[in-house]
Amino acid sequence: MVVPKWFDHDGLTNLVRPIIWIEAHIASINLCTAVPIESAGAVLFWLENKISWILKSESPRRSQIRNAEPTSMAQSKPELIAQIILDGFIDYRKKFHAITLAAEGYFEKAEWRAIQEQSKYRIELYDEFSQRVIRQLDDKFAREDFEIANWAEVKAVFVELIRNRPDFELAETVFNTIYRKIFTDADVDEQRVFVRSAIDTPMGDVAAITKQYIDASGLGNLFKQVLHDYSFNVPYENLDRDIDQVVTAIKSGLDLDAVTHARVEMLKMVFYRNKGAYLIGRLFLDETPLPLAIPILNDETRGLYIDTVIWNEDDLSLIFSFTRSYFMVDTDRPSLLINFLQQLLPAKKLSELYSSIGFYKHGKTELYRSFLDHLANSSDQFVIADGIKGLVMTVFTLPSYQVVFKVIKDRFSPTKKITRQQVRDSYYFVKTHDRVGRMADTQEFSNFVFPKHRFSKELLEELQRDASSSIKITNDQIVIKHLYTERLMIPLNIYIDNVDEISMREALEEYGNAIKQLAAANIFPGDMLLKNFGVTRHGRVVFYDYDEICNLTDVNFRNIPAPRYPEDELSAEPWYSVGPRDVFPEELETFLFHNPELKAMFRELHGDLFAVEYWQGLQQQIRNQQVVDVFPYRRKKRFDRDAGYGSMHQG
Fold first, then answer.
1. What is the 3-state secondary structure (H, E, C) of 285-345?
2. Tally of helices (H runs) and strands (E runs) in the chain
3. Alpha-carbon span 328 to 326, nearest angstrom
4. What pLDDT, on a 0 to 100 scale, did the predictor assign at position 568?
5. Secondary element (H or E) of residue 280
6. How far apart are the C-alpha atoms of 464 and 473, rounded to whole Å?
């Protein structure tokens, strides 16, 4: 039996040894005869988590190892540290890969809750792995052995270890993470961390991840080739009908009269998210490229079907939006895949694209790099963000940069019955939850350094007054100890004040849809005031203030009890008890709208939100394990499956 290198006999009981034996022999015992192949990875994760939990306790043997010399005298301390970090990264990538591959099986079996749970676990995996690496380093060395002056040598060794890896950029981000966890207050120094990538590796040939389709006999045969190449273990309901609808939609939306030939270039991998599988590529019409996305859904009873076809950048951008959950897409060459996606979506930032396929930590790295580039090429000042000031966060912007910066205040308004840790927990909840296209993704930073001369006087005064415990000021720098970033949006209350009646109505309809879709995904926003929602460049309304967010099923929706006496209605205090989780939907109308015109318009569009029955009905659906259908494209673009060939859904 091959014993894992982290196996420590003295730290384990006889009960644990069989678990390790199972992991070591998982192939030979043919575990997949009892467990579906797509679940085998999950079993391994469970096994290792159990073992890791047991290993957390300090055994006598492990205490002896703590300050022992390296097992190989040929390895210096920097070499050993770099190798431990790389080994941890390799293990992380293996688990990330296994979770991602399992998405296909969940999609085919329509196990929607499972894919959401695994999506959440894949996010949590990064922190689990980094904590494990830190423990391994602590087991091998005393903390005083981590001399920051020597970390440049550790980095130099690490560069050589990862130089030929196709995912080297992810490894660099992992190195940064470990460094920042060890040296929590250290400056970001290019000599010791990867502020910029240290490896200039050729991008590679896109042919390695794509396939070309050419057919002179027409679009129908062209797409038939494409669809037949993506095999699922579930049959299509009516593939000929779906191909006909794809061709009809493209012909009705594009002028093809002058086109002499067409071809398609598709990514080999399938993008899975929630209840959909997406084929991504581009359509060439006489060598003019158009982005292409084909969403495939699973009816569970009637089989697979193509829901629509997307061929323009704006619609594809919605599919890859920062308000969506991360895709499950398997790739060994992330930079090559991202380069292809950026050709389809040139307006998307690298940070958003990396995050969209699950590498959100490297997305954070790319965001920081783009921030440094923007600072070097701009001169405007950071200012207090437009809109009504928040009760929990100080929010500021750089007008020329499409990002907002949020700092938790030292003290909250008495109306906010929450703690600083609860605010942080709420933001983490959003990170790991299905955002259904209605919540902005965030990145969390520690010790973020800003040039002091770029801060306006008003902003600096507000930070010193409201968030002094979170900032450190030097002669030329402002260091914010804990910071969130989000994509910049126009606050909904400001947007509505500056548009015509038609746009106002569309925004209010979007606002109600956002609340309903969040609720259907088991999210209650808490504070639903207009100021806590923003409008994206695509006109979508998105929630972005998370300090009071909670699961919908944790809320107690009630009707206001009838008054006992006439005097009750005149009392300044309610005549009924109110619990901390009680919500009275009939009060929302008055609470949300002071403008009678807006109130009447919203009641016409979404009056059901003011009825307790609406909310209780959603809660029951969620408790019945129903997963809501939320599409990352307009409903009117969906095909009509029952209307025959050449038809599109109207609505």
1. ECCEEEEEEEEEEECCCCCEEECCCECCHHHHHHHCCCCCCCCECCCCCHHHHHHHHHHHC
2. 20, 17
3. 7
4. 66
5. strand 276-285
6. 9
Pairing assessment for the beta strands 556-557 and 582-583 based on DSSP bridges? parallel
- pTM here? 0.85
* pLDDT for residue 316 is more than 60: yes
Q: In this structure, what token pair is assigned to residue 194?
A: 């990867």
Give residues with Cβ within 8 angstroms of 93, minimum separation 6.
167, 170
Residues identified as active-site:
441
Within its chain, how far is the Cα of 50 from the centroid? 27
Cβ–Cβ < 8 Å for 84, 140:
yes
Tell me the H-state helices in 441-500: 457-466, 492-497
**DSSP state, residue 439:** B
Using CA atoms, how far residue 616 sits from 123, 185, 289, 582, 627, in Å, is 31, 48, 48, 12, 16
Q: What pLDDT digit, counting tens, does each position of 168-226 carry?
A: 999 999 999 999 998 887 778 889 999 999 998 767 788 999 999 998 788 999 999 99
**DSSP secondary-structure letter at 270?**
P
> Which distant-in-sequence residues (6+ apart) come within 8 Å of 651 by Cβ?
635, 636, 638
For residue 440, what are its two tokens? 């902005």
Overall size of the chain counted in residues: 651
**Residue 582 Cα distances to 151, 245, 543, angstroms:** 53, 48, 21
Provide Rg for the chain, Cα atoms. 27
Q: Token pair for residue 291?
A: 């982005």
Assigned token pair, 473: 């000021």
CB neighbours of 343 closer than 8 A, spacing ≥ 6? 282, 289
The pLDDT-based confidence of 12 (bands split at 50, 70, 90) is very low
The candidate with the shortest Cα–Cα distance to 362, out of 505, 177, 209, 559, is: 177
